[in-house]
Amino acid sequence: RRAGASTTRATGPAAAGQGVALWVAITLDADPFTLAEGAETAADLTLDLAVAGLDAPKLTVRLRGFLERMPGGSRNPAREIVVEIAGLVDLSVTNRSDLKVPDSGQYPGNVRVVLHRGPVESASTFAVANEDATLAAAVAWTGSPTVVQGAVSVRSGEGTGLGDLFEALVGARTGLLARLAALESWTTPIALVAQEDPTDGTPGRQHHDGAEAALTLLAASPKADPRDAGERYRQLFPPDGTALTSEVRPSTDWVLFRRRTRKDCEGGPPVGPPEGAPVTVWIRTEDSEDEAEKVATAIQEGQWPDDGWHRADVVFEPAGSELLTPADTWRSRYRDALGGPHIALAAYAGTPTAPAAIVGPGRLDALLAATPPAADRDPDASVGVAVDPPPGRILPATVGSVFLITYRDPEPPAPQLALVGGEDTEALFTALEGADVGAVSRASNTFTRFGEFAAGDTDRDTLQRALGGKLPSNPLSARAVLWLDTSLPKADQVALAALAEQARSVAETVIAPIALPLVATVTAAPPSGMPRAALFLLTVAQVG
């Protein structure tokens, strides 16, 4: 966590150096200590270095190549060997002014080093040194809880081998800096002491809270995968009692025409069904998109509605974002909770053991992905962490709640029939019967509009009031023509045709004893300004 030039002083506090983050990983396809001289194995090295602070330098090194076992080494080849690592180095440097390294790019790399491993006085050790052992990075670990002590040292005096350096590293659990400073043959600019702490990953501890804060920042990044922070949190802080999962990889693959052997199986004992993280989903459904937007805006301002919520329950992966509740089950519960076909807002509220900012985005993403076809998320829906969720909506024995604001599609208006009266001229009848929309539109100023009526909602009394006193009494003749838009659903066409027959029958009683036959049904959309069905009542009035 800190690097400083005065870390080897025996007394006094170490200098507070610059905060840095360092990650080093080396992967080999075979144990180099088991290789015969001249044999080689694929090697992959990654080094990331980031210095704290805005515009501070960052360094990434990636080496892909091969490690070859070389002749030489100690008299005990099981513990100390010489290897040569060669390959192509990808170097990426940001703000390199403070780092004395080459520019970003690809460089051929070749280095020969000595590897040392083995037990020393009941401790385990490992070291990497150059061939003449004048520069070494060594580490030793022992005990339970494990204590790790390490050093990067430069030989400054006479002597061979790494024995005196290891003796300092495997000494007492305290006083490492003093022991290293007392060595006459080594100067140590960098040293480390680390002790395993089973409680270090619990909430309230420095490293847990620091990691959580960092992941929260990552989760808020617009460029971040919303599931990524939650997955990293689960890996760092698995729930208590979680067994390790096992991973089995193929034994061989082919890369650059070279056969590589990989036989590794990582994990623990057989794993049973994972315990879930229960989450309550609260669903509120509005009657329109506008109403849903108003409620969503109020929630974003911290004004939560008290009532109207319906509950559904789901289960997620512990400390993760995978939805363990089957998608069909979740959709059934969504419908039972009266969820609408559109989602305008989705918000997640968590508990301290499962921070919403970290696990929330991934869980919302997984839940919304499992909801169609029961409902679809609006393109501009608000999705994120709940701000000041209403009290009582995070239930005991759960790890959080999801809040969904949904809305229904507006009810389509009932299909309407226009009742229109007109003078029964041969020209108008020909235009109506021939579906001449232009001619009928030009004659519209001569029509009498009796009103528009909904199918299924109109009775004979209503029609009698609309037509009585407006149709000519005892006309010379009468006939009717129905225009009906066939693009309407079939059920609507049937309902409108029935309403037209009812209206014709009522009109016939009004002009009795003259008959009013329906002489034509035209499958065409009525002129503009009329609904999609119209019954034209044509009459010839008596003169005088």
Summarize the structure.
This protein is an alpha+beta fold and 544 residues long. The chain has helices at residues 163-169, 176-182, 206-219, 228-236, 289-300, 327-336, 356-370, 426-433, 437-442, 460-467, 490-510, and strands at residues 2-3, 18-28, 40-51, 58-70, 80-94, 105-120, 123-129, 135-142, 147-155, 186-195, 247-248, 252-255, 258-261, 265-266, 277-286, 310-316, 342-350, 376-385, 400-407, 416-423, 448-454, 477-484, 518-522, 533-540.
Would you kindly provide a written description of the structure presented here, covering whatever features stand out?
The protein has 544 residues and is α+β, with helices and mostly antiparallel strands. Helix content is 22%, strand content 36%. A hairpin with a 2-residue loop joins strand 6 (105-120) and strand 7. The longest helix is centred in the C-terminal third of the chain and has 21 residues, at 490-510. The radius of gyration is 41 Å and the shape is elongated. It starts with a strand and ends with a strand.
